[in-house]
Write a structure and sequence with these properties.
With 178 residues, this protein is an alpha+beta fold. The chain has helices spanning 2-21, 25-39, 42-48, 55-66, 72-83, 90-104, 120-134, 165-177; strands at 107-114, 137-144, 152-156, 159-162. InterPro entries: ATP_synth_OSCP/delta_N_sf (IPR026015), ATPase_OSCP/d_CS (IPR020781), ATPase_OSCP/dsu (IPR000711).
């Protein structure tokens, strides 16, 4: 995984810099998401790994599938990736682009998994608190996992806050054993 990020990062940064300069972050975000989804299709994956095709043929076949969703600069980006044998990195490039976009827009996506569904008031309070903690606008996505005894797990990027009963008991046991 780290290797994929290392290979994809320069492309994501270049796409982000271009999109930012062109004031088209949302357009590039959508285009990269579409291209990433197309590249993960089983048939397209086989096409991308076909050693009998040249880089240009791979790019042309890939663009024949999703060219309607790409601008001319997006098509050129796909051709560049094909030329450098990096089309399989599109999902990672798209994810890194989204991270750069969120940072530039001062937003963060937060996933909350709780034992019970959050009320609107709880969601609003959690959004407000997390916004203060991270210094960004929070986009909250919540889900329910009834296997949790109580509490919630909050994931925001690399940060994980385990506020579940099971997590608290594990911390207590660790503290007592040390």
């Amino acid at each position: 995984m780290a290797e994929l990020s290392t290979l994809a990062r320069p492309y994501a940064k270049a796409a982000f810099a271009y999109a930012q300069q062109a004031s088209d972050l949302s357009g590039w975000s959508a285009a990269l998401a579409t291209a990433a989804a197309v590249s993960q299709s089983e048939k397209v994956s086989e096409l991308l790994e076909n050693p009998q095709l040249t880089s240009e043929e791979r790019a042309d076949k890939f663009l024949s599938i999703c060219s309607d969703d790409l601008s001319e600069s997006g098509k050129n980006f796909i051709r560049l990736l094909a030329e450098n044998h990096r089309l399989p990195l599109l999902p990672e490039i798209s994810a890194l682009f989204e991270e750069l976009k969120a940072k530039a827009e001062s937003t963060i996506d937060v996933e909350v998994v709780s034992a019970r569904a959050l009320s609107d008031a709880q969601a609003a309070e959690l959004t407000k608190s997390l916004g203060k903690k991270f210094g960004r606008e929070v986009h909250l996505h919540s889900s329910v996992d009834e296997s949790l005894l109580g509490g919630a797990i909050v994931r925001a990027g690399d940060t994980v806050i385990d506020g579940t009963v099971r997590g608290r008991l594990a911390k207590l046991a660790e503290a007592m054993n040390s």
